[in-house]
UniProtKB/TrEMBL annotation:
One GO term of the biological process aspect: L-methylmalonyl-CoA metabolic process
Protein name in UniProt: VOC domain-containing protein
Family, as annotated: Belongs to the methylmalonyl-CoA epimerase family.
PANTHER family recorded: METHYLMALONYL-COA EPIMERASE, METHYLMALONYL-COA EPIMERASE, MITOCHONDRIAL
Molecular functions per Gene Ontology: metal ion binding; methylmalonyl-CoA epimerase activity
Source organism of the structure: Pedobacter kyungheensis
CDD domains to which the protein is assigned, alphabetical: MMCE (cd07249)
Xref: Pfam families: Glyoxalase_4
Occurrences of domain VOC (ranges): 3-131
Keywords: Metal-binding
Record carries keyword Metal-binding: yes
Length: 135
C-alpha cells in the first residue's frame, strides 16, 4: 500500500454537506459522481495531497443507507492507493484477511476498488484503490 488515497465520510445529504466541507477545508468540491453499482452519489475534495470523499445513499437498501441508519454520519472508510490491486488482494488473502469482493470493481474517481472486511481490521473498513490507466 502506497499512501492514504482518501477518507470516505457517509453523509445524509450532499446538498447540505458539500458547502460545509467547502467552508471547512477552504477548497471547492472538484468532482461529483454517481456510482450506480454502489448506490451512492459522491463528492470529492482535495486539500494538499489528501482527498476526502463524501458518500450519499441513493437507495434506502444501499450499504451507505444502512451505515447511516446504524451509525449516523461519519467516517465510513479509509482508502489506500495500490499499484497492483490484484496482487494486493492476493497478498491480503494469503495473510488471512477476508475481502468483501472477490474481484476488483469500478469505483468512483477513475479507480478499481476492493474492500477488506472491518472485523479483521479493528472495525475500520479498508478500501484498496488502483487508478484505471487508459491506453
Amino acid at each position: 500500500m502506497n499512501k492514504i488515497e482518501h477518507i470516505g465520510i457517509a453523509v445524509n445529504s450532499l446538498n447540505k454537506s458539500v458547502p460545509l466541507y467547502e467552508l471547512l477545508l477552504n477548497t471547492s468540491c472538484y468532482k461529483t459522481e454517481m456510482v450506480a453499482s454502489e448506490q451512492v452519489n459522491t463528492a470529492f475534495f482535495k486539500t494538499g495531497e489528501n482527498k476526502v470523499e463524501l458518500l450519499e445513499a441513493t437507495d434506502e437498501d444501499s450499504v451507505i443507507a444502512r451505515f447511516l441508519e446504524k451509525k449516523g454520519e461519519g467516517i465510513h472508510h479509509i482508502a489506500f492507493a495500490v499499484d497492483d490491486i490484484l496482487a494486493e488482494m492476493e497478498r491480503l488473502k494469503a495473510n488471512g484477511f477476508v475481502l468483501l469482493n472477490e474481484t476488483p470493481k469500478k469505483g468512483a474517481d477513475n479507480k478499481m476498488v476492493c474492500f477488506v472486511h472491518p472485523k479483521q481490521t479493528n472495525g475500520v473498513l479498508i478500501e484498496l484503490c488502483q487508478e484505471i490507466k487508459w491506453v
